[in-house]
Amino acid sequence: MSNADQLKKAAAEAALQYVEDDMIVGVGTGSTANHFIDLLAGMKARIEGTVASSEVSAERLRKHGIPVMDLNSAGQLPLYVDGADEATEHLHLIKGGGGALTREKIVAAASEKFVCIADESKLVGMLGAFPLPVEVIPMARSFVAREILKMGGQPELRQGFTTDNGNLILDIHNLHIANPVELEGQLNQIAGVVTVGIFARRPADVLILSGKDGVRTLR
Ligand SMILES: O=C[C@H](O)[C@H](O)[C@H](O)COP(=O)(O)O
């Protein structure tokens, strides 16, 4: 396993302490979340089930024999564990590098505790070096791109990619996100935008960061 993968696994391992008996656990998407899924398999008999934030995670969970439930029947979730593309010490995040941002935002919103797991390289002073993913309705693609240009961002269509919801992703370059709460709201207002990959209005509650000196937790 590469060094980067070992760090991701260490963060995922630290998140297991938040899993309690009989819980329905919200499970995210991406390489860090995959480690969490693989580790969760070791305690599958203790949990009631999971809600997945993407088809690909649902498939990985099922392969481990972990029950995957529909959010509509699961109701309010006690816990959601997922990775991030960038995180600040205020626990504001950029997510959606894997294109799963909409379902991730829904599961995060429906969860009492959102535990974000990441290696130290994801910690930044200001969000925006990672191109900000925005999920858009296909017919609004050009309109949304023009609106983003007016705001100073450089939108780029994610080529050959369709989300689990049948939509497109615009990755916005050239953003220096000084006020993530405000920008999340502004971008959300553009007609045709489904979800913005800034998680600031519903930030993480706990950020587990793993580095070469071990694992630390920000709250
Ligand atoms: O859409 C994908 C998710 O937001 C991921 O949590 C994010 O891209 C981080 O992925 P990874 O753990 O692979 O860096």
Automatic annotation (TrEMBL):
It is an enzyme of class 5 (isomerase). NCBIfam families: PRK00702.1, rpiA. It catalyses: aldehydo-D-ribose 5-phosphate = D-ribulose 5-phosphate. Keywords: Isomerase. GO terms for cellular component: cytosol. Homodimer. Pfam families: Rib_5-P_isom_A (PF06026). It comes from Ectothiorhodospira haloalkaliphila. Pathway: Carbohydrate degradation; pentose phosphate pathway; D-ribose 5-phosphate from D-ribulose 5-phosphate (non-oxidative stage): step 1/1. The keyword Endoplasmic reticulum does not apply. PANTHER family: RIBOSE-5-PHOSPHATE ISOMERASE. Belongs to the ribose 5-phosphate isomerase family. This is Ribose-5-phosphate isomerase A. InterPro entries: NagB/RpiA_transferase-like, Ribose5P_isomerase_typA_subgr, Ribose5P_isomerase_type_A. CDD domains: RPI_A. Its EC number is 5.3.1.6. Transmembrane segments: none annotated. The gene is rpiA. Catalyzes the reversible conversion of ribose-5-phosphate to ribulose 5-phosphate. Substrate binds at residues 29-32, 82-85, 95-98, 122. The keyword Transmembrane does not apply. GO terms for biological process: D-ribose metabolic process; pentose-phosphate shunt, non-oxidative branch. The active site is at residue 104. GO terms for molecular function: ribose-5-phosphate isomerase activity.
